[in-house]
Amino acid sequence: METKCNCAIRASKELVTNLHRDGLDRGCIATFSDFLTIRQSFTSDENLLHQSLNSLRNVASGDTCLYDSISGVIDRTFRRNAYPSRPWVLIVVTDGDDNLSSMSSRQCSREIYDKFTKEDNNFMFVVGVGDRVNASKMQEMARAGYFDYIPVDDFLLLELAFLNIAYKVTKSLSLSLNNLAIGDISATWAEVQQHRQLSNVAIDYALLVDVSSSMNDMLRPQCFAGHDLRMVNGEYRENLWFCDVCGKDGPSSKTSEFHCSSCNFDACPSHCEPGRQCKPISRCLEDHPMRYVNIPGTWICDEDKKPYIGRHLRCEQCDYDMCPTCLTLITLMENLALVGR
Ligand SMILES: [Zn+2]
Ligand SMILES: [Zn+2]
Ligand SMILES: [Zn+2]
Ligand SMILES: [Zn+2]
């Protein structure tokens, strides 16, 4: 299995490969945990950037000094070494909440605005990965600091976030008006490259990547809400478990290999892929993933309005229950619709 850090490195390399024009644009690689480290100062040499990213494989340790590090990278790299005539682009990746900075989130936002985003030509993005990032605080900071906050559920989506960032940056810099629509999510790396080749604006950009100890975590499978699924032992469980995805009984032990304690969710190994959310068997009318539940007494199927007893699929949010017969019918019709396409 892959670590979060290695996944972040892979996505970063993809970004550099497609955004960077060798000998023209200048990139900088920085990391943060207990403190900020400038790994590679601004260089137009693409190979040096890749080497610097490769060297991050085994460095993750320590806490999350996010705010001080953002301020540091703006002061120590951009304001000291970047070309004032060029657009500046700062991309930050974090998987957690700041727990070490001397400055507050408010002070950090103010510095970001005063020293960086106040210039129309500058762009800053923070990508928050996973459920340990305080999304509402980051959104508030983004508003105050005039930067973009991009939350993604898991590390496998980081490359997609980078692609959207690169696309937004290249769109804004490209002088030729093309037929690509803003917000077009079907953008590809090939399009980003094409835009960069057409543009005559060179950029100075920096990647600031979280290398706190949690970045050593392996990519875990996730519940429907995007929480990591972890092993839970019999001694912590009262009952044998059943799978929330397919409704089958777990093996006859209290140990569940893939458990979410926030949602009290368990899944068989067959639904679990590293870094991915389990795929639900079916969804309610509002498109929420449905879970198997064991409600005592009778319940009414919301499709055929008949009463039933026992374990079945349910959407708690919509108070929507579905019997096995209706599930079979609906699944069959969905499959037919797919074939007919
Ligand atoms: Zn299952
Ligand atoms: Zn959960
Ligand atoms: Zn629902
Ligand atoms: Zn039914």
UniProtKB/TrEMBL annotation:
CDD domains: vWFA
A Pfam family that the UniProt record links to this protein: VWA
Top-level lineage group: Eukaryota
Annotated ranges, domain VWFA: 29-165
InterPro entries reported in the protein's UniProt record: VWF_A, vWFA_dom_sf
UniProt-recorded name of the protein: 15435_t:CDS:1
Organism: Funneliformis mosseae
